[in-house]
């Protein structure tokens, strides 16, 4: 039988979290739950049929405020649903060594205080199979990625899904450290994540050059929409990532709106659509470190892990580029040009630029990339606010 805890204050919420066992529901009445200590869920290991659920009675009407995180530590099958987070100077939710956690239909709207913090952090040993879905993240001007996967120093969390979320109004512009999503760090970049980022809407995400920064291996970024966002989806570290069926739409005016920037080995970039961008639609960059054909040098130093790794065997196929300032670009960074790449069947709708621009000669295999006629454009489906976030179907 499910135990239900009805709470209406921060003290009652903390006490209920301490008592509740898997299979219980903690229901938050409308109001502000302000506290300067974390709410700690530790060692609560449930199952698919016995979850610990923390839910707002009325979606969006229970506000977590103050300097307090919900910290889910070494737990499994926990759900956080329908809350409004206005936390100051720190993460709203921390998943630490936890699995099968569902973070759904929450609104993350931090109080801007000039500090550096993330909104949702996934870290710790053994983390995985978590789902972050139908939340709203933003606005955010303070430094720190909105959603960050930091791992445990050796391994990133695995098999997580980030879907149907709304990321918006991130900025003003900084050089580094204000990504919408960061998957990993240089120190864990050779670990495999198998994380999926799909069906999210990114609008006016102008915080830094990397809207999504992938710093791990074998993740998938697909079916997302990027609207008027100054930055690029970047395979910054790691290998074997897949980027497909994403849509990038700019207004042709805002600077630094791009598509992809790629480093490392064996990435696949296919079936994406890019229109009215003011930066490179597809940059298969050069590198300042050569990680080798297999991409796993025996003892790379931390300094080497932080470098821009030479690209090997990128497959760039069947992408559509419409009225972008720069189309497919190879090898800006020196000294190592991309190697063994296949650039094939991409359509560029612009008569003012070549289909492919090479900064330096690259041995890429280029097949049937061409400037196409506007009548041949196949317009993709574009996500809107109706499709994502706490109030979506």
UniProtKB/TrEMBL annotation:
Pfam families with a match to the protein in the record: Chondroitinas_B (PF14592)
SUPFAM superfamilies: Pectin lyase-like
InterPro entries: PbH1, Pectin_lyas_fold, Pectin_lyase_fold/virulence, PL-6
Spans traversing the lipid bilayer: none
Gene3D superfamilies documented for this protein: Single-stranded right-handed beta-helix, Pectin lyase-like (2.160.20.10)
Name by which UniProt lists this protein: Lyase
Species whose genome carries this gene: Paenibacillus etheri
Lineage: Bacteria, Bacillati, Bacillota, Bacilli, Bacillales
């Amino acid at each position: 039988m499910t135990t239900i805890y009805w709470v209406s204050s921060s003290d009652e919420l903390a006490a209920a979290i301490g008592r509740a066992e898997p299979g219980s529901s903690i229901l938050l009445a409308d109001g502000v739950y302000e506290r300067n200590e974390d709410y700690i869920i530790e060692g609560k290991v449930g199952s698919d049929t016995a979850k610990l659920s923390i839910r707002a009675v009325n979606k969006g009407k229970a506000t977590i405020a103050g300097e307090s995180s919900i910290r889910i530590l070494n737990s499994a099958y926990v759900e956080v649903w329908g809350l409004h987070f206005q936390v100051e100077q720190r993460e709203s939710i921390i998943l630490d060594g936890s699995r099968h956690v569902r973070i759904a239909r929450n609104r993350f709207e931090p109080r801007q205080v000039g500090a550096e913090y993330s909104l949702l952090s996934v870290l710790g040993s053994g983390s995985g199979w978590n789902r972050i879905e139908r939340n709203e993240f933003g606005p955010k001007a303070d430094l720190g990625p909105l959603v960050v996967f930091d791992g445990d120093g050796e391994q990133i969390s695995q098999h997580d899904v980030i879907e149907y979320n709304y990321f918006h109004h991130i900025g003003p512009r900084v050089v580094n450290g204000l990504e919408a999503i960061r998957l990993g760090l240089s120190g864990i970049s050779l670990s495999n994540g198998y994380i999926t980022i799909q069906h999210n809407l990114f609008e006016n995400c102008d915080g830094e050059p990397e809207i999504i920064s992938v710093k791990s291996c074998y993740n998938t970024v697909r079916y997302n929409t990027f609207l008027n966002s100054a930055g690029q989806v970047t395979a910054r570290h790691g290998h074997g990532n897949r980027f497909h069926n994403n849509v990038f739409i700019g207004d042709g005016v805002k600077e630094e709106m791009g598509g992809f920037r790629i480093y490392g080995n064996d990435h696949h970039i296919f079936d994406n659509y890019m229109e009215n961008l003011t930066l490179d639609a597809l940059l298969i960059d050069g590198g300042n470190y050569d990680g080798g054909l297999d991409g796993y040098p025996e003892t790379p130093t931390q300094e080497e892990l932080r470098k821009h790794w030479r690209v090997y065997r990128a497959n760039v196929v069947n992408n559509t580029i419409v009225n972008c300032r720069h189309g497919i670009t190879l090898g800006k960074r020196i000294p190592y040009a991309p190697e063994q790449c296949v650039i094939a069947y991409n359509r560029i709708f612009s008569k003012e630029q070549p289909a492919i621009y090479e900064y330096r000669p690259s041995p890429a295999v280029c097949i049937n990339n061409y400037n196409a006629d506007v009548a041949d454009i196949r317009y993709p489906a574009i996500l809107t606010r109706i499709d994502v976030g706490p109030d979506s179907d």
